[in-house]
Design goal:
Blueprint: H1 2-5, E1 13-19, E2 27-34, E3 40-48, H2 56-76, H3 81-84, E4 88-89, E5 98-100, E6 103-109, E7 114-115, H4 123-139, H5 158-171, H6 181-188, H7 191-202, E8 209-211, E9 220-223, E10 229-232, E11 239-241, H8 243-254, H9 272-286, H10 292-296, H11 298-319, H12 331-348, H13 350-361
Helix pairs in contact: 4-8, 4-9, 5-11, 7-11, 8-9, 8-11, 9-13, 11-12
């Protein structure tokens, strides 16, 4: 990996290149260098998984546009753009990344004295996470989202996901459709839900925004001294989207105390305390970055994204487990059932969810 690291405009002599972090998609390495004065400097070297991201050059165009835009905003606010945003280190030819040995790599500056957490320990962590991603929405509220390329086409286009699901039911490649008639009916009965957010966008009632699309706690660097959120990372899925997507993905993944493949569905339910903590933080962080109508659609975002993920898991189950890694035959089915149970529980708590929105949208 030393030879690959040397393709970039780094300072000093490379001491070591070692694996870093626990990402699921890209391969990440920490590059340690020694400067002339004997001090050390580190960088992040990443191999972009071009099986997932088919056009890494376009991905990096998005990446650099967003980082440059954020740096300008942070600087105008008197912040530290080197710590509060990511910095792309160009290649020696001045490019944003490089193809070598059939793989695509990029280099980032290492932000020192930070920590990253994998799991929310309770409402306070969830609130901090929400405030950071809400602030991300605020900073990018005036960025023209249509300038960005869809790094994964139709990623949160729920109507397209629904059509793909219908095709999977019809083709029944795995021969499993007879085993999941109840789950299929649950999804078919909610066709209108899958269209809801896209219909609002088409009608001009909510705007197209820059969305992160992977709003989990581990994608926030925290200051090691203050434990406050410092920098949003993992910008590969930055795309045009809806604010409700980012809140929805967080609620789907974090407002429930069970694993995504929990077999005991009695344990799977929306924790209103966690939902409220996230809504409070997201609305506070976003400030004037969200319209009244966008705030109203936040519960719908949670429901749509959770249903969408259930659709994706069941589609893969019907196709024969081709996309998601599975550890046993019914793994995707268990994942499907947790998502659908969560949707059902959201429907049962719909008034409570909307009361939370009213509580914080009036502040």
């Amino acid at each position: 990996m030393d030879k690959i690291a040397e393709l970039f405009q780094i300072e000093g002599k490379i001491l070591e290149v070692v694996p870093h972090g626990g990402g699921y998609i890209n391969d990440t390495y920490a590059v340690s260098c020694e400067l002339e004065d004997g001090s050390k400097k580190r960088y992040i070297l990443q191999r972009i998984n071009h099986d997932i991201f088919k056009n890494p050059e376009a991905l990096m165009d998005n990446f650099v546009m967003i980082c440059d835009y954020l740096k300008d905003i942070v600087e105008k606010k008197g912040g530290n753009p080197d710590r509060e945003t990511l910095t792309v280190i160009p290649t020696k030819q001045g490019e944003k990344g490089v193809w070598t040995e059939g793989k695509y790599y990029r280099m980032l500056a290492f932000i020192e004295d930070t920590v990253c957490y994998e799991v929310c320990q309770g409402p306070e962590d969830f609130y901090k996470c929400a405030k950071a991603f809400g602030n991300f929405q605020m900073m990018l509220k005036d960025f023209p989202a249509d300038k960005l390329t869809e790094t994964i086409p139709n990623f949160h286009n729920t109507p397209v996901r629904f059509e793909t699901f219908l095709k999977a039911v019809e083709e029944n490649k795995s021969g499993r459709a007879h085993l999941v008639q109840e789950e299929i009916k649950f999804i078919l009965d909610r066709k209108a839900v899958t269209d809801s957010l896209m219909d609002l966008l088409k009608a001009g009632e909510i705007p197209l925004k820059v969305t992160h699309n992977d709003t989990k706690l581990s994608n926030i660097l925290m200051d090691a001294k203050t434990n406050d959120s410092l920098c949003i990372i993992d910008l590969d899925t930055i795309m045009p989207g809806l604010a409700a997507y980012d809140l929805g993905d967080s609620i789907r993944a974090g407002a429930c105390y069970t694993a995504e493949d929990e077999k005991d569905l009695s344990k799977v339910y929306l924790v209103i305390e966690l939902f409220e903590a996230y809504v409070k933080g997201f609305i506070e962080g976003a400030g004037t970055g969200l319209s009244k109508k966008e705030i109203e659609t936040l519960p719908l975002g949670a429901k749509v994204i959770t249903l969408e993920q259930g659709i994706r898991f069941l589609t893969d189950y019907l196709d024969g487990d081709l996309y998601y890694k599975t550890q046993y035959e019914e793994h995707n089915l268990d994942r499907t059932r947790t998502q659908l149970k969560l949707v059902a529980d959201m429907e049962a708590k719909w008034d409570e969810m909307n009361n939370v929105i009213k509580k914080y949208s009036n502040n």
